[in-house]
Specification:
Layout (H helix, E strand, L loop, with lengths): L3 H17 L3 H25 L1 E8 L5 E7 L4 E8 L5 E6 L5 E8 L2 E7 L4 E7 L8 E3 L2 H30 L5 H29 L4 H7 L2 E2 L2 E2 L7 H14 L4 H29 L1
Parallel strand pairs: 1-7
Antiparallel strand pairs: 1-4, 2-3, 2-5, 5-6, 7-8, 9-10
């Protein structure tokens, strides 16, 4: 049975009693208690939710989706069709610091890292979307924005290379042109590698670095577990120190441990084979 009517009846009865006995000070005191109680409940509710809102220019009548990125799956938790004001608002109660995807479609999305109580605001354009956006309200999400900005800078170089090659492929000196384009690509890829590596080393205790480990450049992986294993292990160790109960930290630590065991077994097998 709902107890609220009984509580409300008791409050009203007490209020009428105080009024009838002309005790205005008591009335003010009770009203203040009720106001404080409601305020505390609202604060408690706000601190349990992540709020993600913003404005997406040229997005009227377009739909946005909010997905929760778990370690091995993506769950759509909400969606919204934007109106004339081109604003959107999502609210969600996470069980831990979580990774979200704000998507306009399967290939275009903004990655967000958010914790309980954070109020995140995003500004972008529907056409460019993840290629040019701003975000505030979350330090981890701002790190991802910084990572994305550098990636987009080098991605533009890739796009230019592809367009130039489309034009040059039928030219008689295409071999020379390709060598020049390959050189530009190598410089861009090297720049992206060095930036991501430095980014991860500096922010190894953030979930942003977990995303950076697997962030590709074009169709190619920038970092590889085989070649950059020490960096992968550093992120795992630092995440377990900073976020020991987070599912992303735990599952990534399991992956790294398994990788180390497989590598150890391989080395022991090779050593045994050489000793025969």
């Amino acid at each position: 049975m709902n107890r609220f009517p009984k509580v409300l009846f008791s409050i009203i009865s007490l209020f009428l009693y105080i009024v009838s006995h002309k005790k205005p000070t008591s009335i003010i005191f009770i009203l203040l208690l009720l106001l404080i109680s409601c305020t505390n409940k609202n604060k408690l509710a706000d601190s349990s939710f992540v709020k993600i809102s913003g404005v997406i220019a040229n997005a009227e009548n377009h739909q946005l989706f909010l997905q929760l990125l778990n370690y091995n799956e993506k769950l759509t938790i909400d969606s919204a069709i934007l109106g004339k004001d081109e604003k959107f608002y999502f609210s969600y109660m996470p069980v831990e610091k979580a990774i979200f995807l704000l998507k306009k479609d399967e290939n275009n999305y903004i990655t967000i890292i958010a914790d309980k109580g954070e109020n995140i605001e995003i500004t972008s354009d529907y056409e460019s979307f993840e290629k040019d956006y701003s975000i505030k309200g979350s330090d981890d999400s701002q790190l991802l924005c910084e990572l994305n900005n550098h990636l987009q800078m080098n991605q533009k170089k890739l796009d230019s290379i592809a367009k130039l090659w489309e034009t040059a492929i039928k030219l008689p000196n295409r071999t020379e042109i390709k060598q020049g384009l390959d050189s530009v690509y190598y410089k861009a890829a090297t720049n992206q590698y060095l930036f991501q590596k430095q980014f991860i080393e500096t922010n190894s205790g953030s979930l942003a670095s977990l995303i950076a480990l697997y962030l590709p450049f074009g169709r190619d992986a920038v970092l590889r577990e085989s070649a950059d294993f020490a960096l992968f292990e550093k992120v795992s160790n630092d995440l377990m120190k900073k976020l020991p109960n987070n599912s992303h930290s735990i599952n990534f630590a399991k992956r790294i441990k398994q990788k180390k065991m497989l590598e150890l077994e391989k080395n022991l097998s090779e050593k045994a084979a050489n000793n025969k």
